[in-house]
Design goal:
- The structure holds two protein chains of two kinds.
- Chain A is mainly α.
- Chain A is built from eleven helices and no strands.
- Chain A is 74% helix and 0% strand.
- In chain B, 26% of the residues lie in helices and 31% in strands.
- Chain B is built from nine helices and 19 strands.
- The chains are: A mainly alpha, B alpha+beta.
- At the A-B interface, α10 and α11 of A face α1, β10, β11, α7 and α8 of B.
Amino acid sequence: MRAYELIKETFFRRTYIWVVHLVWLALYGMYWWLFLPDLADWGRFVLIWGGLLLALALSAGIFGDDIASGRICVLATKPFWSGYLYIYRMVGLSLQAAVHLLLAGCLIIVLQSLTRRVNMNGLALWLLASWLLFNACAALSTSLSVVVERAFNSLVILFFAVTGYVIVALLASELRGQSEPPMLQEIIRYACPPFELLQKFAGGEHGQYSLTFGRFSTTKAAACIVHALVLTIAYSTIGIVLLCRRDFSRVRD
Amino acid sequence: MVSPVKMCAFILVLALLEAWALYTVRLSPARWYSAMIVKDEPQARALYDAMTKAMRESKSLSYTAVSSGPDGRATIYDIFLRKPHAWRTEVSNHLTERTTILVGKSGTLWIYWSGNRSVWQIDTADSHQKTRSNAYIEKCISVAGCSIRSEIASLGMTWSNLILDPSLFHGNPDPYAAFIDGIRSQGTEAVGRDVCDVIEISFMKAQRTRYIWLSRQDHLPRKIKEINRLADSHVTVVQWSDVKLNPRIPPALLTWSPPETSKRWHLSPPEASLLKHGQAAPEFTLRSINGGAISLSDYRGSIVWLYIWQAGSPLCRKQMPHLQSLYESYRDKGAVILGLNATDSKRIAKGLLKDNGITFPIILDSSTTAEKIIAEYCGSRTSEVPVSYIIDEHANVVDAWFGFEEQYDRVAAALRVAGARIER
């Protein structure tokens, strides 16, 4: 029962949450009308806006606010393990993303049926990739919010997370040209949220466009999903460990 | 709380899963590279020959090819071919419904389009403004040796390509055929309703691999996939449909005359996009293939033959064996060759240089900085190689051109103008 309450609370955590979802959905629609994309472009747009930025907008400061406001003491009372608090928060966020992406998928289908602009093959894969990326980014951001605990830190975390991603993207772009991938490039590719891999997975690069014979490589697609899930669990584990090591007093920070 | 034993088991399972995922996903050239160089199988070679024969021996052929890559928009080509030298190709993007039509007949090529065309790679802002609608191009082409694939590619209207040049039908050789490592069979697979034999062809020591799905009915392709291994690998897939062998093609489709109201767009020659005599050669500092950096200013006081090349270009491959001997003979006469490659992977580029015993300095750098430098030197034609620049001791351009000539007269003349002590 407590799990359900926590998930529900995470789901409706802020009053402006509906505004975020509506703005994001409106942006998908605007992108459609303004840029006349084909599915590959559109899929990448959902991956960035739904998988990356929505995760940051929804999860930034989630524990920072709880800790700073003192609410954490109410939520994490013994014998309730603090780790559960983290897990249920993450499940709440993940469910919220799933609903959001399903709505985005419906929007795409409606727009497509009205305009007949794109080929819909691969839509399910793009939505799945976006959801997996959302989970990884949300876990990273949530774990970060356990450490950065000042009140109203959401925007600060969002700003630094976006800045960090831009720097990583620029570094990845610059390192792309190097013939022998250096260690830093490998770290960006495999230790950061798996944007590149999921883009390849959803874009069909492990299928028709794989670097071997033309059959869809189910093994590589499965490996991408496993890697994204393992990263999500790893980021979450860091957050859980950090959260469990803290002693919460009833005195406000 | 979770017990430590369970926690350890959980971490171990996660670590194993992650190790498997990384092993499967990781791009590891060492794992596949040697296996990608295909050895010839007679049966597979016979299938390839049957395809060539079917194309060459038919009187007419029409098909629709849809070309796409993971990052590119699909382009549709409706192709009509008739012997001896007539052809028509309609190129359209399924999103915009704009169509560009190329009609080749008896040494003349007309290119025209419906509505407002998009911006092509060869366009300047001015040329697009003036010619986007109600205009056409008329070109003289070689009657016997026109490559349809190259004509389409030279306009830069789309990133995708046909892979297999339709001009094979007219008897033109495939420029990559001379660089086939081997052909092997990959079994059979259905493409739509057609049962196909699949063959795998590797070129240039696996710099490029093609898979061709050949219909058992007419020996013509139904699907072609090409992997072009550059610094990043590029994959293109072309689907053939509505394939008709020896159809009746209405004569009206294979000829065209410009309407009176339409204006002719006189294309600039390709070399117009290169830097001109007397212009300063843009300075650069880029990565050397052997580590470290190479700047153009390192050669101030020497005459430089800047040679822009790609390992996947048949012309560059053909020229490579001559370059080392030219380098050795020019070195004592005050000129050096400096190779510049902004596309290839180190493994493939090094392999080619080793095979040809190249010792002159080579830049291998596919960063965005290198791409910008190439754009400064080659203008809109960044994918056309080889490009040669002769740069004098003061870093000014003496001459520049695309391609290569067998006798190297132009190189020698330009080097003499630059001040090299080369005899006539």
